[in-house]
Protein backbone atom coordinates (compact mmCIF):
# COMPACT_ATOMS: atom_id res chain seq x y z
CA UNK A 1 0.00 0.00 0.00
CA UNK A 2 1.27 3.44 -0.94
CA UNK A 3 2.20 5.43 2.15
CA UNK A 4 0.65 8.81 2.92
CA UNK A 5 3.21 11.49 2.02
CA UNK A 6 3.56 14.13 4.73
CA UNK A 7 5.50 17.41 4.69
CA UNK A 8 6.19 19.41 7.83
CA UNK A 9 6.54 23.20 7.69
CA UNK A 10 8.26 24.76 10.70
CA UNK A 11 10.67 22.39 12.44
CA UNK A 12 11.00 24.14 15.81
CA UNK A 13 9.94 22.72 19.17
CA UNK A 14 6.59 21.28 18.15
CA UNK A 15 7.57 20.62 14.52
CA UNK A 16 10.11 18.12 15.85
CA UNK A 17 7.41 16.45 18.00
CA UNK A 18 5.31 16.05 14.82
CA UNK A 19 8.27 14.62 12.88
CA UNK A 20 8.66 12.00 15.62
CA UNK A 21 4.93 11.18 15.76
CA UNK A 22 4.43 10.88 11.97
CA UNK A 23 7.73 9.05 11.44
CA UNK A 24 6.50 6.28 13.73
CA UNK A 25 3.16 5.90 11.95
CA UNK A 26 3.11 2.74 9.82
CA UNK A 27 0.90 4.24 7.09
CA UNK A 28 2.83 7.40 6.42
CA UNK A 29 6.19 8.78 5.52
CA UNK A 30 7.60 12.22 6.33
CA UNK A 31 9.03 12.90 2.88
CA UNK A 32 9.95 16.57 3.31
CA UNK A 33 10.48 19.27 5.89
CA UNK A 34 10.54 23.00 5.30
CA UNK A 35 11.99 25.78 7.44
CA UNK A 36 13.66 29.13 6.89
CA UNK A 37 16.37 28.15 9.35
CA UNK A 38 18.88 26.14 7.28
CA UNK A 39 20.89 24.79 10.20
CA UNK A 40 17.73 23.56 11.98
CA UNK A 41 16.63 21.88 8.74
CA UNK A 42 19.92 20.04 8.38
CA UNK A 43 19.87 19.01 12.05
CA UNK A 44 16.32 17.59 11.71
CA UNK A 45 17.18 15.85 8.42
CA UNK A 46 20.24 14.20 9.94
CA UNK A 47 18.47 13.21 13.17
CA UNK A 48 15.34 11.73 11.56
CA UNK A 49 16.59 10.72 8.08
CA UNK A 50 14.14 12.94 6.19
CA UNK A 51 14.62 12.55 2.41
CA UNK A 52 13.98 16.16 1.29
CA UNK A 53 14.52 19.56 2.88
CA UNK A 54 13.25 22.90 1.60
CA UNK A 55 13.45 26.53 2.61
CA UNK A 56 10.70 27.39 0.12
CA UNK A 57 7.20 25.96 0.65
CA UNK A 58 6.11 26.43 -2.98
CA UNK A 59 9.07 24.40 -4.18
CA UNK A 60 8.29 21.67 -1.64
CA UNK A 61 4.69 21.42 -2.88
CA UNK A 62 5.78 21.45 -6.56
CA UNK A 63 8.34 18.70 -6.15
CA UNK A 64 6.97 16.39 -3.44
CA UNK A 65 3.35 15.55 -4.40
CA UNK A 66 2.32 15.57 -0.76
CA UNK A 67 -0.95 14.18 0.63
CA UNK A 68 -0.85 16.27 3.79
CA UNK A 69 1.14 18.99 5.53
CA UNK A 70 1.66 19.84 9.15
CA UNK A 71 2.05 23.59 9.68
CA UNK A 72 3.99 24.42 12.84
CA UNK A 73 5.18 27.96 12.20
CA UNK A 74 4.71 30.68 14.85
CA UNK A 75 1.09 31.77 15.43
CA UNK A 76 1.20 34.93 13.32
CA UNK A 77 2.60 33.03 10.33
CA UNK A 78 -0.19 30.47 9.85
CA UNK A 79 -2.16 32.13 7.07
CA UNK A 80 0.35 32.02 4.21
CA UNK A 81 1.35 28.35 4.54
CA UNK A 82 -2.33 27.35 4.78
CA UNK A 83 -3.21 29.29 1.62
CA UNK A 84 -0.25 27.75 -0.23
CA UNK A 85 -1.12 24.22 0.94
CA UNK A 86 -4.81 24.68 0.09
CA UNK A 87 -3.90 25.82 -3.43
CA UNK A 88 -1.71 22.72 -3.73
CA UNK A 89 -4.76 20.62 -2.78
CA UNK A 90 -3.33 18.90 0.32
CA UNK A 91 -4.99 18.28 3.67
CA UNK A 92 -3.67 20.36 6.55
CA UNK A 93 -2.89 19.81 10.22
CA UNK A 94 -2.43 23.35 11.54
CA UNK A 95 -1.00 24.10 14.96
CA UNK A 96 -3.14 26.09 17.37
CA UNK A 97 -4.20 28.86 17.59
CA UNK A 98 -5.75 28.99 14.12
CA UNK A 99 -4.36 32.53 13.75
CA UNK A 100 -3.91 35.69 15.77
CA UNK A 101 -6.66 37.73 14.05
CA UNK A 102 -10.23 36.93 13.00
CA UNK A 103 -9.35 38.19 9.50
CA UNK A 104 -6.54 35.63 9.13
CA UNK A 105 -8.74 32.86 10.60
CA UNK A 106 -11.55 33.63 8.15
CA UNK A 107 -9.10 33.72 5.23
CA UNK A 108 -7.80 30.31 6.32
CA UNK A 109 -11.31 28.84 6.54
CA UNK A 110 -12.27 30.35 3.17
CA UNK A 111 -9.13 28.95 1.51
CA UNK A 112 -9.65 25.38 2.74
CA UNK A 113 -13.35 25.44 1.89
CA UNK A 114 -12.67 26.77 -1.62
CA UNK A 115 -9.97 24.18 -2.23
CA UNK A 116 -12.08 21.45 -0.58
CA UNK A 117 -9.21 20.23 1.57
CA UNK A 118 -9.45 19.21 5.21
CA UNK A 119 -8.24 21.49 7.98
CA UNK A 120 -7.47 19.92 11.33
CA UNK A 121 -6.40 22.09 14.26
CA UNK A 122 -3.70 20.81 16.61
CA UNK A 123 -5.94 20.99 19.66
CA UNK A 124 -3.91 18.46 21.58
CA UNK A 125 -6.30 17.94 24.49
CA UNK A 126 -8.71 16.22 22.12
CA UNK A 127 -6.09 13.46 21.87
CA UNK A 128 -4.73 13.14 25.41
CA UNK A 129 -6.53 9.98 26.55
CA UNK A 130 -7.63 11.33 29.97
CA UNK A 131 -9.10 14.51 28.49
CA UNK A 132 -10.69 12.57 25.62
CA UNK A 133 -12.22 10.24 28.24
CA UNK A 134 -13.87 13.16 30.06
CA UNK A 135 -15.22 14.56 26.80
CA UNK A 136 -16.63 11.17 25.83
CA UNK A 137 -18.34 10.77 29.23
CA UNK A 138 -20.17 14.07 28.64
CA UNK A 139 -20.87 13.20 24.99
CA UNK A 140 -22.48 9.92 26.08
CA UNK A 141 -24.56 11.76 28.69
CA UNK A 142 -23.02 9.75 31.57
CA UNK A 143 -22.27 12.92 33.56
CA UNK A 144 -25.36 14.89 32.50
CA UNK A 145 -25.16 18.49 31.35
CA UNK A 146 -21.97 20.42 32.15
CA UNK A 147 -22.60 23.22 34.63
CA UNK A 148 -19.30 24.24 36.16
CA UNK A 149 -15.60 23.75 35.38
CA UNK A 150 -12.15 24.66 36.54
CA UNK A 151 -9.16 24.25 34.28
CA UNK A 152 -5.49 25.00 34.81
CA UNK A 153 -2.44 24.97 32.55
CA UNK A 154 1.00 26.08 33.67
CA UNK A 155 4.53 25.91 32.26
CA UNK A 156 7.92 26.82 33.59
CA UNK A 157 9.17 30.36 33.09
CA UNK A 158 11.75 29.14 30.55
CA UNK A 159 8.92 28.49 28.03
CA UNK A 160 7.85 32.13 28.39
CA UNK A 161 11.45 33.24 27.84
CA UNK A 162 11.84 30.88 24.85
CA UNK A 163 8.85 32.50 23.15
CA UNK A 164 10.28 35.94 23.98
CA UNK A 165 7.01 37.89 24.04
CA UNK A 166 5.80 36.80 20.60
CA UNK A 167 2.44 35.62 21.97
CA UNK A 168 0.35 35.72 25.15
CA UNK A 169 0.12 32.76 27.50
CA UNK A 170 -3.58 32.57 26.62
CA UNK A 171 -2.64 32.12 22.94
CA UNK A 172 0.09 29.63 23.78
CA UNK A 173 -1.61 27.53 26.46
CA UNK A 174 -5.12 28.79 27.18
CA UNK A 175 -6.39 28.05 23.67
CA UNK A 176 -6.17 24.30 24.39
CA UNK A 177 -8.47 24.53 27.40
CA UNK A 178 -10.82 27.00 25.70
CA UNK A 179 -11.27 24.57 22.81
CA UNK A 180 -11.69 21.64 25.21
CA UNK A 181 -14.29 23.46 27.34
CA UNK A 182 -16.21 24.60 24.23
CA UNK A 183 -16.24 21.01 23.01
CA UNK A 184 -18.06 20.00 26.22
CA UNK A 185 -20.13 23.10 27.06
CA UNK A 186 -20.98 24.06 23.46
CA UNK A 187 -20.81 27.28 21.48
CA UNK A 188 -23.64 29.15 23.19
CA UNK A 189 -21.29 31.46 25.09
CA UNK A 190 -22.59 34.61 26.74
CA UNK A 191 -19.62 36.51 28.22
CA UNK A 192 -15.92 36.26 28.91
CA UNK A 193 -14.34 38.01 31.88
CA UNK A 194 -10.60 37.92 32.23
CA UNK A 195 -8.04 39.34 34.56
CA UNK A 196 -4.29 39.09 34.05
CA UNK A 197 -1.22 39.70 36.20
CA UNK A 198 1.96 41.54 35.22
CA UNK A 199 5.04 40.38 37.10
CA UNK A 200 8.44 38.99 36.09
CA UNK A 201 7.51 37.85 32.57
CA UNK A 202 5.71 41.13 31.87
CA UNK A 203 8.67 43.16 33.14
CA UNK A 204 11.09 41.27 30.88
CA UNK A 205 8.93 40.50 27.82
CA UNK A 206 5.90 42.83 27.91
CA UNK A 207 3.27 40.04 28.06
CA UNK A 208 1.18 39.07 31.09
CA UNK A 209 2.44 36.37 33.48
CA UNK A 210 -0.99 34.79 33.91
CA UNK A 211 -4.68 35.04 33.10
CA UNK A 212 -7.78 33.99 34.96
CA UNK A 213 -10.52 33.64 32.34
CA UNK A 214 -14.16 33.18 33.33
CA UNK A 215 -16.39 31.95 30.53
CA UNK A 216 -20.15 32.10 31.08
CA UNK A 217 -22.61 30.27 28.84
CA UNK A 218 -26.19 31.38 28.20
CA UNK A 219 -27.33 28.24 30.11
CA UNK A 220 -25.80 29.76 33.27
CA UNK A 221 -22.86 27.32 33.22
CA UNK A 222 -19.47 28.80 34.11
CA UNK A 223 -15.84 27.78 33.64
CA UNK A 224 -12.78 29.33 35.25
CA UNK A 225 -9.49 28.86 33.44
CA UNK A 226 -6.12 29.71 34.95
CA UNK A 227 -3.14 29.88 32.59
CA UNK A 228 0.38 30.84 33.57
CA UNK A 229 3.97 30.63 32.42
CA UNK A 230 5.28 31.61 35.78
CA UNK A 231 6.14 28.14 37.14
CA UNK A 232 9.59 27.89 38.74
CA UNK A 233 12.32 26.03 36.88
CA UNK A 234 12.53 23.58 39.77
CA UNK A 235 9.07 22.16 38.99
CA UNK A 236 9.70 18.60 37.80
CA UNK A 237 6.79 18.97 35.36
CA UNK A 238 7.56 21.18 32.35
CA UNK A 239 3.81 21.42 31.85
CA UNK A 240 1.09 21.02 34.44
CA UNK A 241 -2.50 20.49 33.40
CA UNK A 242 -5.63 20.00 35.39
CA UNK A 243 -9.32 20.06 34.62
CA UNK A 244 -12.46 19.51 36.69
CA UNK A 245 -15.86 19.42 35.01
CA UNK A 246 -19.00 19.21 37.07
CA UNK A 247 -22.17 17.95 35.37
CA UNK A 248 -25.78 17.50 36.49
CA UNK A 249 -25.21 13.73 36.90
CA UNK A 250 -21.54 13.48 37.83
CA UNK A 251 -18.13 15.06 37.61
CA UNK A 252 -14.69 14.34 36.21
CA UNK A 253 -11.31 15.52 37.36
CA UNK A 254 -7.92 15.04 35.77
CA UNK A 255 -4.67 16.29 37.19
CA UNK A 256 -1.68 15.40 35.05
CA UNK A 257 0.66 17.26 37.40
CA UNK A 258 -0.61 15.29 40.37
CA UNK A 259 -1.09 12.19 38.20
CA UNK A 260 -4.73 11.54 38.85
CA UNK A 261 -7.95 10.95 36.96
CA UNK A 262 -11.23 10.22 38.59
CA UNK A 263 -14.76 10.17 37.26
CA UNK A 264 -17.69 9.99 39.69
CA UNK A 265 -21.48 9.87 39.78
CA UNK A 266 -23.86 9.24 42.69
CA UNK A 267 -23.40 5.51 42.17
CA UNK A 268 -19.78 5.02 41.14
CA UNK A 269 -16.29 6.47 41.24
CA UNK A 270 -13.83 5.34 38.64
CA UNK A 271 -10.05 5.83 39.02
CA UNK A 272 -8.63 4.59 35.70
CA UNK A 273 -4.87 4.18 35.59
CA UNK A 274 -3.21 7.12 33.83
CA UNK A 275 -1.75 6.49 30.39
CA UNK A 276 0.66 9.46 30.64
CA UNK A 277 0.32 9.67 26.86
CA UNK A 278 1.02 13.09 25.37
CA UNK A 279 -1.47 12.41 22.58
CA UNK A 280 0.68 13.56 19.63
CA UNK A 281 0.84 10.14 17.96
CA UNK A 282 -2.95 9.78 18.41
CA UNK A 283 -3.34 13.20 16.77
CA UNK A 284 -1.05 12.07 13.91
CA UNK A 285 -3.09 8.90 13.50
CA UNK A 286 -6.31 10.91 13.33
CA UNK A 287 -4.84 13.19 10.63
CA UNK A 288 -3.80 10.15 8.56
CA UNK A 289 -7.35 8.73 8.94
CA UNK A 290 -8.77 12.09 7.83
CA UNK A 291 -6.56 11.93 4.71
CA UNK A 292 -7.37 8.31 3.91
CA UNK A 293 -11.07 8.17 4.80
CA UNK A 294 -14.14 10.42 4.97
CA UNK A 295 -13.53 11.01 8.69
CA UNK A 296 -13.70 14.68 9.75
CA UNK A 297 -11.23 16.45 12.04
CA UNK A 298 -12.46 16.76 15.65
CA UNK A 299 -11.47 20.41 15.71
CA UNK A 300 -11.69 22.17 12.34
CA UNK A 301 -11.68 25.78 11.22
CA UNK A 302 -14.87 26.68 13.11
CA UNK A 303 -13.48 25.35 16.40
CA UNK A 304 -10.27 27.30 15.78
CA UNK A 305 -12.18 30.51 15.09
CA UNK A 306 -14.41 30.02 18.18
CA UNK A 307 -11.39 29.62 20.47
CA UNK A 308 -9.73 32.66 18.89
CA UNK A 309 -12.82 34.82 19.49
CA UNK A 310 -12.82 33.80 23.17
CA UNK A 311 -9.14 34.72 23.49
CA UNK A 312 -9.68 38.09 21.83
CA UNK A 313 -12.59 38.78 24.22
CA UNK A 314 -10.40 37.71 27.17
CA UNK A 315 -7.67 40.13 26.11
CA UNK A 316 -10.17 42.98 25.78
CA UNK A 317 -11.74 42.11 29.14
CA UNK A 318 -8.38 41.95 30.94
CA UNK A 319 -7.54 45.42 29.58
CA UNK A 320 -10.93 47.00 30.35
CA UNK A 321 -11.75 45.15 33.57
CA UNK A 322 -15.28 44.31 32.40
CA UNK A 323 -16.99 41.19 31.00
CA UNK A 324 -17.14 41.13 27.19
CA UNK A 325 -20.16 39.79 25.30
CA UNK A 326 -19.26 37.03 22.83
CA UNK A 327 -21.22 35.74 19.85
CA UNK A 328 -19.84 32.54 18.37
N1 LIG B 1 -0.01 21.69 20.27
C1 LIG B 1 0.98 21.93 21.11
O1 LIG B 1 1.13 21.24 22.12
C2 LIG B 1 1.95 23.05 20.81
C3 LIG B 1 3.12 23.18 21.59
C4 LIG B 1 4.01 24.20 21.26
C5 LIG B 1 3.75 25.07 20.19
N2 LIG B 1 2.58 24.93 19.49
C6 LIG B 1 2.26 25.84 18.36
O2 LIG B 1 3.10 25.45 17.27
C7 LIG B 1 3.53 26.58 16.52
C8 LIG B 1 5.05 26.62 16.54
O3 LIG B 1 5.50 26.80 17.87
P1 LIG B 1 6.98 26.38 18.32
O4 LIG B 1 7.05 26.61 19.77
O5 LIG B 1 7.33 25.03 17.77
O6 LIG B 1 7.83 27.49 17.55
P2 LIG B 1 9.40 27.50 17.26
O7 LIG B 1 9.83 28.93 17.26
O8 LIG B 1 10.11 26.53 18.14
O9 LIG B 1 9.49 26.93 15.76
C9 LIG B 1 8.91 27.59 14.67
C10 LIG B 1 9.73 27.23 13.42
O10 LIG B 1 9.06 27.75 12.28
C11 LIG B 1 10.06 28.27 11.40
N3 LIG B 1 9.40 29.22 10.51
C12 LIG B 1 8.89 30.44 10.78
N4 LIG B 1 8.29 30.96 9.70
C13 LIG B 1 8.40 30.04 8.71
C14 LIG B 1 7.97 29.98 7.35
N5 LIG B 1 7.31 30.98 6.80
N6 LIG B 1 8.27 28.87 6.63
C15 LIG B 1 8.94 27.84 7.19
N7 LIG B 1 9.37 27.83 8.49
C16 LIG B 1 9.11 28.92 9.23
C17 LIG B 1 11.10 28.87 12.32
O11 LIG B 1 12.37 29.02 11.67
C18 LIG B 1 11.14 27.83 13.45
O12 LIG B 1 12.09 26.81 13.19
C19 LIG B 1 2.87 27.79 17.19
O13 LIG B 1 1.68 28.09 16.53
C20 LIG B 1 2.60 27.30 18.61
O14 LIG B 1 1.51 27.97 19.23
C21 LIG B 1 1.71 23.94 19.76
Explained architecture:
The model has no long low-confidence stretch (mean pLDDT 95). The strands form two sheets. A nine-stranded mixed beta sheet has the order 14-13-12-11-7-10-9-8-15. It has two domains: 114 residues, NAD(P)-binding Rossmann-like Domain (Rossmann fold, 3-Layer(aba) Sandwich), CATH 3.40.50.720; 170 residues, Dihydrodipicolinate Reductase, domain 2, CATH 3.30.360.10. It is built from eleven helices and 15 strands. It has 328 residues and is α/β, with parallel strands linked by helices. It binds nicotinamide-adenine-dinucleotide. The site of nicotinamide-adenine-dinucleotide has 22 residues, from helix 1.
Supply the CATH architecture of the largest domain: 2-Layer Sandwich
Bound molecules: nicotinamide-adenine-dinucleotide
Strand order of the largest sheet: 14-13-12-11-7-10-9-8-15
Number of helices: 11
**Helix- and strand-based class?**
alpha/beta
Q: Whole-Å distance between the termini?
A: 42 Å
Largest sheet: 9 strands, mixed
Number of strands: 15
| Helix percentage | 25-40%
Number of domains: 2
Strand fraction equals 25-35%
Q: What is the alpha-carbon Rg in Å? A: 20 Å
Write down the CATH class of the largest domain.
Answer: Alpha Beta
- Uncertain ranges: none
* Shape estimate: globular
- Compute the average pLDDT: 95
CATH superfamily of the largest domain: Dihydrodipicolinate Reductase, domain 2
Amino acid sequence: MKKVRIGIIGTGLIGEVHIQAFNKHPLCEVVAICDMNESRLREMQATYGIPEVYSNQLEMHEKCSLDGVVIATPDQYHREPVLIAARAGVDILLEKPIATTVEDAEAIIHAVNTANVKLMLGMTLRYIPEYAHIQQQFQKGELGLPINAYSRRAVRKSEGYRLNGRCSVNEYLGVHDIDFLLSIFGRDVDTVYSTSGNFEIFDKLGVADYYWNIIKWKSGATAALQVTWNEPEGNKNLLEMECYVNGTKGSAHVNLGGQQLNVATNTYCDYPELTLDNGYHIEADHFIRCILTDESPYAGGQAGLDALKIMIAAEKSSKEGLPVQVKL
